[in-house]
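User: Hi! I'm working on a homework problem where we have to compare a predicted structure to a textbook description. Could you give me the structure for the chain below?
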Amino acid sequence: MDDQDGLLALPRSVLLALWLQGVGAGPVQRAVDAVQGEDEPHAVVGVPDVAPDGGSLDQLIAAWAGGPRQAAALLPVPGDASGLPPEVAEPAVDAGECVLVHTADGAWAAVPDVVEFGSVNDVGHLVTWRVHPVPDWRHRLPGLVGSLSEAEQSLRHALLGATEALANLDIARWRPDAAAAIVALRSGADPRWPLPAGLAPRAVRVLADAVRLRTIVALATADDGGAVNLWQADQRTAALRHIDHAARRAVAAATLAAGPSGQTGPSVQTGS
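Assistant: Happy to help. Predicted structure tokens:
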């Protein structure tokens, strides 16, 4: 995995939402491997019908992907919990992510609780998905995050804004390492994500643009080295916060549109 792969790693909630909606995604284990990545095996709590005493990610995916389903991933930040059911707003903001799922059995929100362990040079992750029953979110969410077309338009405007903001910041002067990474991110290279076959290509393209833009914002706001005074720091933060908002909405819109409306595609198989 090169540096750009690491920078563009997809949040776990995005991967789970995409694999749940993947058409002809194949065996459950493929989905589990994609979501878990290099983590320790993920645990699941809060789904009595699946595993009363706690269960595993494969049990959860098999239960949710066994019939018609819809899913979407949200990436909330403090001060912007748009689209989150109140039941999970606080933990989802703390985690910075959440996946919403609707199946024939009802609506759910799952938030990953991630604990790091190990040394600085060898970090591992223990992940527990905390699942909560929530009201049906399918009719409310599209109005909050917008359509895929609106997401594409917002990303185009956001990219122009990011280019202008980065030029004003003159990142190359004070953070040449970040400037080089940003140039690489803007190249549009394939991020090589472990995605299922059958996702809507347009949705995947929007998702890639949104994640690149979010990563650029994160690099540009890592410290205040380029701001010579508090006013400049505030101006930079305000400009890039707006760009990040557009990117996060685009991620939600892309995951929501990744599979056919009212997903009725082939169920994920339970074999390995």
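For your comparison, note the following. DSSP finds eleven helices and six strands in the chain. The chain has two domains: 3-141, 148-253. Good luck with the assignment!
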